[in-house]
Structures are given as C-alpha cells and as structure tokens.
Amino acid sequence: AIRMTQSPSSFSASTGDRVTITCRASQGISSYLAWYQQKPGKAPKLLIYAASTLQSGVPSRFSGSGSGTDFTLTISCLQSEDFATYYCQQYYSYPLTFGQGTKVEIK
Amino acid sequence: EVQLVESGGGLVQPGGSLRLSCAASGFTFSSYWMSWVRQAPGKGLEWVANIKQDGSEKYYVDSVKGRFTISRDNAKNSLYLQMNSLRAEDTAVYYCARDQGDWFDPWGQGTLVTVSS
C-alpha cells in the first residue's frame, strides 16, 4: 500500500496567515491526489482533486500543487472557518489511502 | 441537492454482524461508483471498500477482506456494507461517499459502529 505522510501533524496559526501543508507519498502517484477538510463532528469535505483542481464552491484562497511524491495545500489568507483538520488522499492505486491529517489550530 | 444518509450503526459484540445502509438522493445513483470510508474515534480516515456502478467490481482494504461485503441496489438508490466477524478495531464512524474517480464527494454524515462486549 502507498503510505501518505503529512507534515506537520498540527500547528497554530493566526487569521490572515498564509499556511502550507505538505503531503508526501511513499512512491510516485502522478497527480492522483485529493485534499479534504474536516471540522469536529462533521464529515470531510472535498477541497481539491487531481492535485491542483479546485472543487466547485471552494474558496480560491485554497490551492494545491505538486506531482510525483510531493504535494502541498496552501491557504493564502487563513479565515476563522478554516481552522480544521486537513487530509490528503492518493487514488493512484488500491488500497486508496489517506495521510494521517494536519490539524490547524488558532494561535 | 445531493444527499447521502447512512443508517444501521450501533453497539455489537465482538464476532457479531451488522449491516449498514446508505440512502442516496439528488443524483443518478446508478451512474457512480460508491465507497465506504471509516474513522476510528480520534483517528484519521481509512477507505474500506468501493463498488462499481453495476456491482460487477468491488475492492476492499486488506483488513476487512473476507469479513465485509459491499453491495448496492440501484432500484432503491441504496448502498450497503455487510460487516461480519466484527472486531474491536472496527469501531468507527462509517461514511458512505460518492466515488468521483476514486476521490470522494460528497460524504454522508456517518453512522457510528461500536464493537464491544
């Protein structure tokens, strides 16, 4: 199985900050990567697929980049509603696998 | 509006069985792969299984192979997960999700399965 490793596991940030979350795959996955946001007690929400394609309705402050093994999710100007846990997921091969999550907390 | 509503969760003893259901609405259910994804309490996400539009292809994570069976009824716009030989480590919130090409959108609200004596 392809292992997905996110960094950092958690961090604190302030509203207005630019934040970047990294996801690394244990082997090349081309651009078969999605990002999700999950708030406490809620289902995950798709943000980005194909590494950099923004899902309809997702604010443009979210962006994704990367290919092969290294990927990033960037939030250009953190808003209060963005404090959540973020997961990457590869869909290059079965079993489909997720990163362990990155929790973004309020500083 | 696309909606997925899971049901069937609950408390079950180790070794027991449970059948989860997911009712879909707001889209042409028979046109999409569908998946189950779970999340143990306080933990991350784990994909469990998915199924092709006509049910002819199914894939599972190794930890549930031989114990869980995914199925669907397109006439009822419903997805199912039959879970047998349940273990404590199967305790989780189980989400159904529309499979968009092996990424997931949207997700249901989830149903909690607790395996405990």
What would you say this structure looks like, in words?
- The complex is a heterodimer of chains A (107) and B (117).
- Chain A is an all-beta fold and 107 residues long.
- Chain A is 0% helix and 50% strand.
- Chain A is built from no helices and eleven strands.
- Chain A has strands spanning 4-7, 10-13, 19-25, 33-38, 45-49, 53-54, 62-67, 70-75, 85-90, 97-98, 102-106.
- In chain A, the strands form two sheets. In chain A, strands 2, 4, 5, 6, 9, 10 and 11 form a seven-stranded mixed β-sheet that branches. In chain A, strands 1-3-8-7 form a four-stranded antiparallel β-sheet, with no helix packed on it.
- In chain A, a hairpin with a 6-residue loop joins strand 9 and strand 10.
- Chain A is globular, with a radius of gyration of 13 Å.
- With 117 residues, chain B is mainly β.
- Chain B has strands spanning 3-7, 10-12, 18-25, 33-39, 45-51, 58-60, 68-73, 78-83, 92-99, 104-107, 111-115.
- In chain B, strands 2, 4, 5, 6, 9, 10 and 11 form a seven-stranded mixed β-sheet that branches.
- In chain B, a hairpin with a 4-residue loop joins strand 7 and strand 8.
- Chain B starts with a strand and ends with a strand.
- In chain B, 39% of the residues are buried.
- The mean pLDDT of chain B is 98.
- Classes of the chains: A mainly beta (107), B mainly beta (117).
- Chains A and B meet through strand 4, strand 5 and strand 10 of A and strand 5 and strand 10 of B.
How does the SSE layout of this entry go?
The complex is a heterodimer of chains A (107) and B (117).
Chain A lengths: L3 E4 L2 E4 L5 E7 L7 E6 L6 E5 L3 E2 L7 E6 L2 E6 L9 E6 L6 E2 L3 E5 L1
Chain B lengths: L2 E5 L2 E3 L5 E8 L7 E7 L5 E7 L6 E3 L7 E6 L4 E6 L8 E8 L4 E4 L3 E5 L2
Parallel strand pairs in B: 2-11
Antiparallel strand pairs in B: 1-3, 3-8, 4-5, 4-9, 5-6, 7-8, 9-10, 9-11
